[in-house]
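Q: How do we represent a protein-ligand complex in a form that can be generated cell by cell?
A: Start from the inputs.
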Amino acid sequence: MNRKGKNILITGGAGFIGSHLVMMMVNKYPDYRIFNLDKLTYAGNLENLRSIEESPNYTFLKGDIVNADFIQNIFDQYLFEGVIHLAAESHVDRSIDSPNEFAMTNVIGTLNLLNSARKCWAGKFEGKMFYHVSTDEVYGSLGETGLFREDTPYDPRSPYSASKASSDHFVRAFFHTYGMPVVISNCSNNYGPLQFPEKLIPLMINNILKEKSLPVYGDGTNVRDWLYVSDHVSAMDLIFHKGRKGETYNIGGNNEMKNIDLVHLLCDICDEELSRSANSSRKLITFVKDRPGHDRRYAIDAGKIKRELGWEPGTLPEKGFRKTVQWYLNNGEWLNRVTSGAYQQYYQKFYLT
Ligand code: NAD
Ligand code: TYD
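Then emit the C-alpha cells for the protein with nicotinamide-adenine-dinucleotide bound:
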C-alpha cells in the first residue's frame, strides 16, 4: 500500500490499547498523517500520548462517535483513507450498570463511522480499509475445554459483549452489502502499562500498593487468556496492512490463567519489587460476590493469524507481568492522577466542547 500522505483515523486513541497503537503508528509510519479521535471519557487520557503529541504527523480530534454530524464533518474535511476503530465503552461491570451507554457508543458509534466511511469512499475502495477492533467476549463462555475460533458462533452474554457483537455484525454487513473493505479482529484480555485501574490487573496492583483489599469475584477460578498490549499492537499493524478484506482474525496470548492464580502472582511480584515480606500481599485477597453472568473461561485459537500473517505473541508472560508491575509501581503519580480524575480537568482547558 502506498502510504505517502494518507490520512488515517484512529478512534479511541487516548484509551489503553489505543494509546499504544497511536504511539506505534506515529513513530513507525511518518508518511501517514494519524488523526486520533477520542471523546476523552473517564478512560481516555491524553497524558498517555505526551511522547508524540508534538509530532508533525499527529493530530488530536476531540469528539463523540455517537454524533453523526461531527463524524461526517471530519470525514468531509480530512478524507480518511484508513480507519482503525477502537473507541468503545469497554468495562463489563459498567455495562451491567448502564447498558444503554454501551449500545450508543459501541453500536451506534460504529454505525456512524461505517456510514461516513462509505459516503466518503463512494464506491472507490482501492487502497481503503476499515479495521474494527473487537473482543473475544462476543463468542460467549467456554467450559473446561475448547478454544474460540473465527467460526465459533457468537453468544454474547454481557451488555458489553452484546454491544461489541452487534457492532461486529454491522461491520460484516457493510462488507457483504456494499462491498466495503473491512477487517475485524477479536482479541483476548490485554494487559500492560496505561490501563485504567478498573480492570483486573492494574486494579490489583494499585490496591496492593495502597494495601487495600483485593476483590476476587466468586471463587476466583474463572479463566482469561492474557496478552501483553504491545503484542496486540503488532498484530493490529499486520491486520491493518496485510489482513484480507472481509476476514476476521482471532488474537490471543496462549496464556490461560485462573484469576486467583494471576492475583497470587501479582501479589508475589509486588512483594518482591516493594521489598515486602513474602506472602504479605496475599493476605489482602477478599472473595466477593460474583459478577452477574460472569463468563467462565475465554481461550483463543490464534492459528489463523499465525498461518496467514506470521503473528505470534512475542512477550513471555513472566516477563510481561513483571514489566507491567514495575511500570505501575514506577508510575504511582499516574495512578493517583487517573484515579482522581485530575487529568480530565487539566485537559479540559485545552479541549473545551
Ligand atoms: P479503554 O476503555 O481503555 O479506551 C476506550 C477509549 O475510547 C477511551 O479513550 C475513551 O475516551 C474512548 N471513547 C469512549 N467512548 C467514546 C465515544 N463515544 N466517542 C469517542 N471516543 C470514545 O478501552 P481499551 O481497553 O483500550 O479497548 C480498546 C478497544 O479494544 C475496545 O473497542 C475494546 O472493545 C477492544 N478490546 C479490548 C480488550 C482489552 O483487554 N482491553 C481486549 C479485546 C478488545
Ligand atoms: P476484567 O479485567 O474486568 O476483564 P473482562 O471481564 O473483560 O475479562 O476482569 C478480568 C477477570 O477478573 C474477570 O473474570 C473478572 C475478574 N475480576 C475480579 O475478580 N475482580 C475485579 O475486581 C475485577 C475488576 C475483575
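The pocket of nicotinamide-adenine-dinucleotide (ligand 1) is lined by residues 11-12, 14-18, 38-41, 43-44, 64-66, 86-90, 105, 109, 133, 135, 164, 187, 189-190, 196 (CB under 6 Å). The mean pLDDT is 96.
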